[in-house]
Amino acid sequence: MPELPKQHVQINAIKPPEAGQVDYYGSGKDAGLMLRVSHTGRKTWFVRYWTYRKGKETRAKKTIGRYPGIDLKDAREEKTSIFARVDKGEDPAKDDKTHKRKNSIKTIDELITVFFEERETEKYRGRVRRNVNDERSMTKCYITPVIGSYAPHTVTNDDIDEVLSKAQETCSGIRANRVLALMRVLFKYALSKKYIDLNPTEGIEPPAKENIREIDPPQKHELKELWNLIENGKRDSSNNPAQISKQIQLVLENSLVSLLRELLSIRLIIFLWSEIK
Length: 277
What we know:
The structure is a single chain. The chain is α+β, with helices and mostly antiparallel strands. The chain is about 50% helix and about 15% strand. It has 3 domains: about 10-90, Double Stranded RNA Binding Domain; about 105-190, DNA polymerase, domain 1; about 220-275. It has helices spanning about 10, 70-85, 90-105, 110-120, 130-145, 155-170, 175-190, 220-230, 245-275, and strands spanning about 20-25, 35-40, 45-55, 55-65, 125, 125-130, 235, 240. The strands form 3 sheets. Strands 1-2-3-4 form a 4-stranded antiparallel β-sheet. Strand 1 and strand 2 (about 35-40) form a beta hairpin.
């Protein structure tokens, strides 16, 4: 492990290796400072320090720049500054990377752009999503006018409520529900990409009650009548039977049997669940 020279002239005289790279480690007052010399002749400064990540003490490394743009004196000053941050409990390499990533997306409009670049190729149940155009329309009509210019990490619950209020005023409560669902996906995406630290849609309730369509299960006499119609056909006003072909009869009967099997499975699941509870 080569030791880092303590003089500018000596560092300048370091020759590149024939292949790969060589790391020179500082000692004494230069402890923690490292200079990497590649076979191309490039010399890069790093500062090495200990920090905690995921509950474990880890050796971390932060790049501070290239030599001779940053000379030995500058590198020492940078090391002192980084060690001061570490003493405060910071993780300079990780924190600066996160900060840079957050600043790469400056507005909600920019977030929406990168979000739909992935959303348009995302598959839902094996097929490319068909509702992307509707989602784009919702962002254009409801989200962008209210928070489009906001930085993603500055959006609050109140801002989300304002978007939903505008959607209710200009359209309907059900549409506002769809806007909320889209914003939840949008900010969940931002959270996964480290653009934000908190999802501002958390704890926001849908503004309108959904109209749930309920279908009454078929009664026994209805199923029997349907089976008879499939088997014997339906008679018109002159009492002439309108027969169904044998092939169609088989298709309809198989469909009806499958439906009954599904209904029995659902009833069994409900019964078992009630017993467990």
